[in-house]
Amino acid sequence: MPIKIPGSLPANKILNSENIFVMTEKRAITQDIRPLKIALVNLMPTKITTETQLLRLLGNSPLQVEFDFINTATHNSKNTPSAHLSSFYKDFEMIKDQKYDGMIITGAPVEKMEFEDVDYWDELKKIMEWSNTNVTSTLHICWAAQAGLYYHFGIPKIPLDKKLSGVFEHRVVRKKAMLVRGFDDVFYAPHSRYTTVSKEDIKKVSDLQITAESDDAGIYIVTSKDKKKIFVTGHSEYDRLTLHEEYMRDIEKGLNIDVPKNYYPNDNPKNAPVMRWRAHANLLFTNWLNYYVYQTTPYDITKIK
């Protein structure tokens, strides 16, 4: 799906070099079709990196996809240039009267905090509530998956004894779910978090379905039965070196942290990491965009409800 982005967005040059189908706004206006509108609520501190990772996975298909990048007005991002934010980002007040075919809410490095203690929690609650009637399907990633399960269904997060970091084996539970169409019975995905959710808590909610899980990493994909809410507890969008960079930052901070599991050959950080989740990542995002957004959303976007 060619992704429609501003020509000056930093991701544009990177994705073109990788042969990802990127369409600038100038070219897009010559095509007489309605593009899918996706809102990307980017809560990650390194926003440019996250933009590139997600745009890479949503590109290279026959349909146009255009994005609105959303940040929270109640949090001052210190790791992204203010010029980038002012050029490419909007806050919720600027988009709340619009409808979107899909929305992605990213993770955030705040999982050790109580949800109510996060400075943008009230704003994020407004966004999640608004998504119920203004977005066809919303994909929640990592911390956002836990936040969404907590806000929409009252499912609490549970602290882990230590950080869960690495690339873990998963299995598909609901093999007929369109979200996992084409998945192998066993696949790999990265995780990087300090908290989790309970399988027992999820099973108590009749509107939720567990779609994929891991013996080592726990619940991985949960969906609502109406397909409007997708919760993914890992980071399939991560690049090859993302876990490495996080591990190095933790070491530099003096944290007592384990080497990411199943990531470096022989678990030796001096070895180049093995990337074994790219195919799964592409299928996950493509299936969501096709079956849960494109095949479901009305042509008249104002009729989304």
TrEMBL record:
Cytoplasm in keyword set: yes
GO molecular function: homoserine O-acetyltransferase activity; homoserine O-succinyltransferase activity
Active site: C142 (acyl-thioester intermediate), H235 (proton acceptor), E237
Binding-site list for substrate: K163, S192, R249
Pfam families: HTS
Annotated localization: Cytoplasm
Feature type site, description Important for acyl-CoA specificity: E111
Annotated EC: 2.3.1.31
Site note Important for substrate specificity, residues: S192
NCBIfam families (alphabetical): metA
Function: Transfers an acetyl group from acetyl-CoA to L-homoserine, forming acetyl-L-homoserine.
Family: Belongs to the MetA family.
Protein name: Homoserine O-acetyltransferase
Organism: Qingrenia yutianensis
Gene name of the record: metA
